Amino acid sequence: MATPRLRLPYGPDIPLGVPSTESLVAAGLNVWTKLVNGHLADLTPMPRDRLHTAPQTTVYRYRGANDRTQPPVLLVPPLAAPARCFDLRRGCSLVEHLVDGGRRTYLVDYGSIAFADRHLGLEHWIETVIPDAVRIAANDAGEPVHLAAWCLGGILALLALADQPDLPVASITLIASPFDVTAVPLVAPLRPVALLTGGRVGTVAYRAMGGAPAFLVKRMFQLSSVDKYVTKPLAILTHLDDRDFLAQIEAVDDFTANMLAYPGRTFGQLYHRFFRANDLAGGCLDIDGKRLSLDGITVPVLAIAGTGDTIAPVAAVHHVGTLLPKSPEVRLETAPGGHLGVLTGRGARRTTWALLDEWLDAHGSRAQHVHSKTTHGIREASSP
Prior knowledge:
The protein is an alpha/beta fold. The protein has a domain of 231 residues: 3-Layer(aba) Sandwich (Rossmann fold). Helices cover 38% and strands 18% of the residues. The strands form 4 sheets. It has a 9-stranded mixed β-sheet with strand order 3-4-6-5-7-8-13-14-15, with helices on both faces. Strands 1-2 form a two-stranded antiparallel sheet. Strand 5, helix 2 and strand 6 form a beta-alpha-beta unit. The protein is globular, with a radius of gyration of 21 Å. 46% of the residues are buried.
């Protein structure tokens, strides 16, 4: 007879039985290591070299990957989240995975956001930060780069290419990037209130704070998966013998504790244009006196959605497939995981990262897809 198990939203199911001797020994060792060392997760960053520094634009090249047959990759983080989302912990780091695979890997880091930066708007990232990072990485690599972006980073990357179509970009991979907020259960009920008030309540709040401060961003991120936070103590207690599981929770907690702020002007634009008006669902965005349209994007695009993501559900992410008529290929995929988990959860090692590897191998150079036919495919990656 199979051992009965308790299903929880956070982590593996809990076996409801007497633990084995091996489990007890492993649990004791994990507790001892935590008490002695203070941690189980190895948060040592992957070694890297700084190529460029400017306000909100530090570009790094990671060491150890010099295979010129592999396409170069530029990692683009969202605003308000630490750029280490791509390098969460050793053993569960997308950067480590790419470098170990011989891929030349770059990162743009926006750094911390201060109250003095409240004047910065989306146009700063779309017109300056991301284009500069792309050109620096491409110049160093000697060829166009493939962008891999998470959440808002993917949206900004597409808008930057819409604004400057001559950027040396070979392809774009979007991970958990929502393009239709009406498909996001967390925010859909709030939109009628914002529409009814003309967004005035939210406007007063973010102007008074100069944006969205780091502590508020942290709480919003936690509330997006409140069920996991409620059940986390029980999950930890019942998985004391699983070091990889405990290390992942530790790394995610550290990541969440270091959330950053949104600049006031940027947050205002996100609130009014993305949340209240849902402009991006139509594929266009009016910003800084000009209209940016995604229908001019002419590079291949891969969009991966997490099946357990409440911030960027599958429908919100895959909506981008309707907005890119000139892209030679738009591939829509799903993989297990929540908003962060689909990017760098333990299961992402065999799902999301495998999809990214396959995509990069298939689009190794820009020349390969100049005459490609547009395809729109949806497939779900298998659960580990």
